[in-house]
Protein backbone atom coordinates (compact mmCIF):
# COMPACT_ATOMS: atom_id res chain seq x y z
CA UNK A 1 0.00 0.00 0.00
CA UNK A 2 1.33 3.40 -0.92
CA UNK A 3 1.73 6.08 1.71
CA UNK A 4 0.67 9.60 0.91
CA UNK A 5 3.53 12.00 0.36
CA UNK A 6 2.56 13.95 3.49
CA UNK A 7 3.36 10.92 5.65
CA UNK A 8 6.96 10.85 4.47
CA UNK A 9 9.28 12.85 6.76
CA UNK A 10 10.99 15.82 5.24
CA UNK A 11 14.43 15.22 3.85
CA UNK A 12 13.66 11.57 3.01
CA UNK A 13 13.22 10.68 -0.62
CA UNK A 14 9.80 8.97 -1.02
CA UNK A 15 9.67 5.63 -2.77
CA UNK A 16 7.09 6.39 -5.42
CA UNK A 17 8.52 3.88 -7.86
CA UNK A 18 6.79 0.94 -6.18
CA UNK A 19 3.48 2.81 -5.95
CA UNK A 20 3.68 3.82 -9.59
CA UNK A 21 4.35 0.25 -10.63
CA UNK A 22 1.46 -1.03 -8.54
CA UNK A 23 -0.85 1.55 -10.13
CA UNK A 24 0.38 0.63 -13.60
CA UNK A 25 -0.35 -3.05 -12.93
CA UNK A 26 -3.85 -2.23 -11.70
CA UNK A 27 -4.42 0.04 -14.70
CA UNK A 28 -3.32 -2.78 -17.01
CA UNK A 29 -5.58 -5.31 -15.31
CA UNK A 30 -8.59 -2.98 -15.38
CA UNK A 31 -7.92 -2.00 -18.99
CA UNK A 32 -7.71 -5.65 -20.04
CA UNK A 33 -10.88 -6.50 -18.12
CA UNK A 34 -12.83 -3.58 -19.59
CA UNK A 35 -11.49 -4.36 -23.05
CA UNK A 36 -12.66 -7.97 -22.81
CA UNK A 37 -16.01 -6.86 -21.42
CA UNK A 38 -16.48 -4.35 -24.25
CA UNK A 39 -15.48 -6.92 -26.87
CA UNK A 40 -17.90 -9.46 -25.39
CA UNK A 41 -20.77 -6.96 -25.34
CA UNK A 42 -20.07 -5.94 -28.94
CA UNK A 43 -20.09 -9.60 -30.05
CA UNK A 44 -23.36 -10.27 -28.23
CA UNK A 45 -24.92 -7.15 -29.74
CA UNK A 46 -23.87 -8.23 -33.24
CA UNK A 47 -25.31 -11.71 -32.65
CA UNK A 48 -28.64 -10.28 -31.45
CA UNK A 49 -28.77 -8.06 -34.52
CA UNK A 50 -28.02 -11.05 -36.80
CA UNK A 51 -30.76 -13.11 -35.15
CA UNK A 52 -33.21 -10.22 -35.58
CA UNK A 53 -32.46 -10.11 -39.30
CA UNK A 54 -32.90 -13.89 -39.61
CA UNK A 55 -36.19 -13.71 -37.72
CA UNK A 56 -37.50 -11.03 -40.07
CA UNK A 57 -36.47 -13.08 -43.11
CA UNK A 58 -38.23 -16.11 -41.66
CA UNK A 59 -41.41 -14.10 -41.16
CA UNK A 60 -41.25 -12.94 -44.77
CA UNK A 61 -40.76 -16.49 -46.06
CA UNK A 62 -43.69 -17.81 -44.00
CA UNK A 63 -45.91 -15.11 -45.46
CA UNK A 64 -44.96 -16.25 -48.96
CA UNK A 65 -45.56 -19.96 -48.39
CA UNK A 66 -48.82 -19.98 -46.46
CA UNK A 67 -52.25 -18.71 -47.41
CA UNK A 68 -54.50 -16.53 -45.33
CA UNK A 69 -57.81 -17.60 -43.90
CA UNK A 70 -59.75 -15.45 -46.36
CA UNK A 71 -57.92 -16.99 -49.34
CA UNK A 72 -58.77 -20.50 -48.13
CA UNK A 73 -62.39 -19.47 -47.59
CA UNK A 74 -62.61 -18.06 -51.14
CA UNK A 75 -61.08 -21.18 -52.68
CA UNK A 76 -63.38 -23.51 -50.75
CA UNK A 77 -66.42 -21.49 -51.82
CA UNK A 78 -65.35 -21.81 -55.47
CA UNK A 79 -65.03 -25.59 -55.08
CA UNK A 80 -68.41 -25.83 -53.35
CA UNK A 81 -70.06 -23.75 -56.09
CA UNK A 82 -68.68 -26.10 -58.74
CA UNK A 83 -69.86 -29.12 -56.77
CA UNK A 84 -73.33 -27.57 -56.50
CA UNK A 85 -73.42 -27.03 -60.29
CA UNK A 86 -72.24 -30.60 -60.87
CA UNK A 87 -74.89 -31.92 -58.49
CA UNK A 88 -77.55 -29.93 -60.34
CA UNK A 89 -76.39 -31.33 -63.68
CA UNK A 90 -76.48 -34.89 -62.31
CA UNK A 91 -80.00 -34.31 -60.93
CA UNK A 92 -81.16 -32.92 -64.31
CA UNK A 93 -79.59 -35.91 -66.08
CA UNK A 94 -81.30 -38.34 -63.72
CA UNK A 95 -84.68 -36.64 -64.32
CA UNK A 96 -84.18 -36.89 -68.09
CA UNK A 97 -83.32 -40.58 -67.82
CA UNK A 98 -86.38 -41.32 -65.65
CA UNK A 99 -88.66 -39.41 -67.99
CA UNK A 100 -87.18 -41.21 -71.03
CA UNK A 101 -87.76 -44.62 -69.42
CA UNK A 102 -91.35 -43.81 -68.46
Give a brief rundown of this model.
The protein is mostly helical. The protein has helices at residues 16-65, 69-101. The chain starts with 15 loop residues before the first helix and ends with a helix.
Q: Care to describe what's here?
A:
81% of the residues lie in helices and 0% in strands. With 102 residues, it is mainly alpha-helical. It is rod-shaped and about 140 Å long. The mean pLDDT is 86.
Query: Helical content, roughly?
Result: over 70%
Note the run of SSEs as H and E: HH
As a whole number of angstroms, the C-alpha radius of gyration is: 43 Å
Q: Please give the number of β-strands.
A: 0
Oligomer designation? single chain
Overall shape: it is rod-shaped
Question: Structural class given helices, strands, pairing?
Answer: mainly alpha
Low-confidence stretches: none
Mean pLDDT: 86
Q: What composes the largest sheet?
A: none
Amino acid sequence: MCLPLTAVPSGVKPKVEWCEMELMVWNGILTAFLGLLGWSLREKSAEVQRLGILLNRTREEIAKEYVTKSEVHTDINRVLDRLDRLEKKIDDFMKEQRSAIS
